[in-house]
Amino acid sequence: MQPRDLSAHAPYVPGRGTEEVARELGMDPEDLTKLSSNENPHGPSPKAVAAIEDAAPTVSVYPKTAHTDLTERLADKWGLEAEQVWVSPGADGSIDYLTRAMLEPDDRILEPAPGFSYYSMSARYHHGDAVQYEVSKGDDFEQTADLVLDAYDGERMVYLTTPHNPTGSVLPRDELVELAESVEDHTLLVVDEAYGEFAEEPSAIDLLSEYDNIAVLRTFSKAYGLAGLRIGYACVPEAWADAYARVNTPFAASEVACRAALAALDDEEHVEKSVESARWSREYLREHLDAPTWESEGNFVLVEVGDATAVTEAAQREGVIVRDCGSFGLPECIRVSCGTEAQTKRAVDVLNRIVSEVPPA
Hints:
Elements: H1 18-25, E1 33-35, H2 46-55, H3 64-78, E2 85-88, H4 90-102, E3 108-113, H5 118-125, E4 129-134, H6 145-151, E5 157-161, H7 173-182, E6 188-192, E7 214-219, E8 232-235, H8 244-247, H9 255-265, H10 268-288, E9 300-304, H11 308-317, E10 320-324, E11 333-337, H12 341-357
Parallel strand pairs: 1-10, 3-4, 3-5, 5-6, 6-7
Antiparallel strand pairs: 2-8, 7-8, 9-11, 10-11
């Protein structure tokens, strides 16, 4: 007895966790600065923490009411009908829902490279396949409609990550509109805005009233600091919004997650603090790191260090955890998440010392 052939499925490679690194190096987790997973260094809103505590005694109940309340709140926030909001366990849950709704066996998606590996993973789980368009270092990772259209060949779904991970570049609004008006009628543009709160570019959600070939992904993992609860959502065109009831996993978003997300939406001050902190941190990283960086509108900065593995391992020994971007196809780069002021300054001091000592690859 064996599972089906999974040889085409590469496992997702996450950033290394504090506990994991501490055990490996024999260090106290409190002595480590983790800047590898683009998490919110300020944690969740105190209102969300209180909601989690309040929800704890109710976890024996399926989250029907909480799910409905969150859906309606998000619809009101974005000026949509409730049916247009697909609440999910993380944004990756929404990717699965959209894949189920869109792909027939052997259909293909078009995704950015480098990019989030779960786009293609989900397509292949559902018996589809994936091809890539290159977001190139040679072009400073600029995203344009022409870049996507040059690779486009009628794929069923096209993923657009803005801000892009791991580079931080954005797809301007006019370029997205050009794509929406250029792709074939059967193609869905999936705009992944996991880092959207940190960007100057407006959300694509307001385009749903004009275009029926755009869906937008959002998450509570980043700016809202709820990564551990796995809660996100997709916003879709009204014309086919009823597909959600046919593809979603029953009660996939937990009671606790829904209640925490509702409370987090009430704390705009915490989100604003998190966004401003990230903007300060990424500018500090770009100004003070003794290595080339790229402009970013996410809560992270991509840094060219020569030998990313050597730098990452050396930084860990110094108590700073950053992301080796070899898994993104960028073995010469690391990604540094935006931390608090103290964390960011510590990371810069450690990385500058290491980069000066580690020979290039």
